[in-house]
Structures are given as C-alpha cells and as structure tokens.
Specification:
Number of strands: 24
Number of helices: 7
Radius of gyration: 21 Å
Distance between the termini: 32 Å
Length: 400
C-alpha cells in the first residue's frame, strides 16, 4: 500500500517536525534545541503477565543525518550496513526486555522510529538495497508470522517528543505509551479497558462478512493479532465489495446535495463544496472553481486512505482527502453533510463501516486509537506530544 502509516514515517523523518502518526504536523511554538536533550529515557514496564522472554528494538532514521539504523540501550546510533537483493539478515539489534512485573529504562535518541517488542522469540529483520524490511505478517511467508509482537512509533527532535500507539497495520499485544512533562505531570494513551483485549477478538469473531478472518493464530491456536481491514483485503479475508454499499449511498446523496468540507479547525472560513457529477465528486472553492476531484473509491482506497483517496502534502486535496477518508471509515458522511464530524456520537453507526476501527475505539480507555491512517482527523488518535519531555513510558499491559 502506498499510503500506509509506515510509508509516512520516512516522510516524517525528513520533515523533522512531522509526527509519525499520519502527516500530523507539530504545532505551537518550537522549543529550542537546548530544551530537548540528544536522548530521552524510555521506561519499559512489563505488566503483561506473560512469562516468555521479552525482546525490545529501537529502529528508525537518525534525524541529523537521514541514515537508517538502530539504537542500543544507551541511545547510541548504529547505522545499518548495506543491504542486498535478495534481502540479507540485519545485525541483531535486540535488547533484553524486563522480566514480568519489572521495568527497565533505555534511552531513545533523536529518531523517527519504532519501538518493537516481541514475546518469546526475536524478530527477523532483513536489509534490502533500499533499507530495512519491516515485518509484513499479512504475507503468510513472512518469518515473523508466528511471533507475538507489536510496536509503538515516535519522533524525537528539537521540537520535542511525539509518541503513539498504533493499530493501523494490526491489533496485537496490548500496551500504553506515556510522557512525563517538564512540570512532573504525566499523560498516557493507548490503554485498553479491562477485558478490552479479549473483548475485541470476541466482537470481531461475531461480526459476519469476513471480519473474523482478520484474526491470525499460531498453529497451536494462540491468538497473535488481527490484521487491519486493508491488509484483510490483500489476504482475501474481506471481500473487495465490503464498503461498496456505503460508498454508493454517499455518491447518490451528493448527486443532489452538497458536502461541505472545512478541513482546518483554525481556518473556519476555508471551505470546499462537493457535488457528484458524471460519477465524479468535484470540490469547488468559495469562488466556484473546481479545486480537486475524486473518483468513486473502493474499499482499499477507504481503508488505506490512498489510491482514489490519495492525500498529498498540500493545502487543498490532501486536507479534503483526509476528511473524506475519516468520514468513510467512521461512516459519518450520510448523517452529516458538514465534515469533518469531530464528535464521536455518530461514528461507526452505519451497518457498513470500518468495524475493526469501531471495535478498537470502543475498547480504549480514553476512546483514542490509530485504527486507520487518518484517525487524527478530529483528534481521535492515540498520540502524545511534549516539547520538553523528562521521560517517556512504554507499558506492556495484560492480555485480558
């Protein structure tokens, strides 16, 4: 997929001020470089209740040089060696994680990267000529297919720390992230409600139409994860027509009425007006000039927020497309002709919706998640930012 979250990580690294979680730009006055040290402590706590060995990885792009590599427990950067075609094994970058009920602290450098953690077995990373090959467990031959793992994403730069939990690619081992701020207070996000982990899989199993087929297990029956619906389309778990009924109804509605998009919360007078004509959704500005157009999207475009809902990093099509993507995934485009719909009361209420995202948000303690790429529209994403972080946290939670 061309607009998956991991693809935007590379763009975030080069932009420096862009968070990893989906083209979310840093806002507010930038902190001075002196206010943000070269490394920040990350306290990892293992409250999972699992007894297997835990392995931790800090992988990403060094922002000062643009080089890809990994960081050791002290935050020292190590560049990857040259890759190959076919990909060659990467150096072992695994750090020993804390035992059950214990904590350990590593230091994270000025990276645009991921903190991976795996239970019971080290992850397999390889290097291609273009850089690191990330796990892709929607591929049944991926060497990490039967490993229980997950990851958090972060950017640490001169404007502070952004750290998030993410389910854009999959829902798996539960965890929460946190930040201790300069005043000593702490904030956290990503934690599931009690019973939320098992409840999510129970809900998905009970959902007809292929949603249960998103769940991946080991040969022994151990539940490993649920793939995101975009990956479910790749594997054939979900039918390609899964969103057609809703998309068709949206197209029909806005053939005779207007969809108004106000993409910038701080620019309420910047509005675009959408009408379907000749099967195409055209948006005009206040002067009546067509500024961008959208072909009717398929499910892959909706779930991936790409292809026919591509969102370039501009000031017109990208913001409109982000808004449409959120509206399709949350199924709010029929009930509210003024988008984005920033409240959550009407989210996921249509029978045709992103049920994966629906079940995740229903089970997070604060209602926030990154269940699809533009879940940050309306600030429903599980992201923290602090301009002067004292410490970050990654807490591995129980599988209940």
């Amino acid at each position: 997929m061309t607009r998956r979250l991991r693809d935007r990580i590379a763009a975030a690294a080069s932009a420096l001020a862009t968070a990893l979680t989906g083209a979310l730009l840093a806002v507010g006055a930038p902190a001075s470089a002196a206010a943000v040290p070269e490394t920040v402590p990350l306290k990892i706590t293992n409250n999972s209740g699992r007894t297997e060995p835990l392995y931790v990885y800090n992988l990403g792009t060094q922002l000062s040089t643009g080089r890809q590599g990994w960081a050791d427990a002290d935050g020292t950067f190590h560049a990857w060696p040259a890759g190959g075609n076919p990909p060659v094994p990467a150096p072992d970058a695994a750090l020993t994680g804390p035992a059950p009920g214990r904590s350990t602290t590593i230091r994270i450098p000025k990276f645009s990267g991921r903190i991976y953690f795996s239970y019971g077995q080290k992850l397999v990373f390889k290097l291609a000529t273009g850089g690191l090959v990330q796990p892709a467990v929607q591929n049944p031959s991926d060497p990490n297919r039967n490993i229980l793992f997950n990851w958090s994403e972060y950017t640490l730069n001169d404007s502070g720390l952004w750290i998030n939990s993410t389910q854009v690619d999959m829902f798996s081992a539960p965890y929460a992230v946190g930040v201790q701020r300069a005043d000593g207070s702490t904030s956290s996000t990503g934690r599931l409600k009690p019973g939320g982990y098992k409840g999510f899989f129970t809900a998905l199993r009970g959902r007809p139409g292929g949603w249960a087929a998103l769940i991946q297990t080991r040969p022994d029956g151990t539940v490993l994860r649920a793939l995101s619906p975009g990956h479910g389309l790749e594997t054939g778990a979900l039918p390609a027509s899964v969103m057609d009924d809703y998309v068709n109804r949206v197209w029909q509605k806005y053939t005779t009425s207007t969809l108004t998009v106000t993409p910038f919360a701080d620019q309420p007078n910047t509005k675009y007006y959408g009408r379907v004509s000749g099967g195409v959704l055209n948006f005009t500005n206040s002067a009546g000039t067509v500024v961008t157009s959208f072909q009717k999207p398929d499910a892959d475009s909706v779930f991936g927020c790409h292809k026919r809902l591509d969102a370039p990093n501009d000031q017109v099509r990208g913001p409109i497309s982000r808004t449409l993507c959120a509206g399709f995934n949350r199924s709010t485009l029929l009930v509210n002709p003024n988008q984005p719909d920033t409240g959550s009361a009407d989210f996921y209420r249509d029978s045709v919706t992103n049920h994966y995202a629906r079940e995740i948000h229903a089970r997070t303690a604060d209602g926030k998640a990154y269940a699809f790429a533009f879940d940050d529209v309306g600030h429903h994403e599980s992201l923290l930012h602090d301009a002067r972080p004292r410490q970050a946290y990654l807490t591995l939670d129980p599988f209940d």
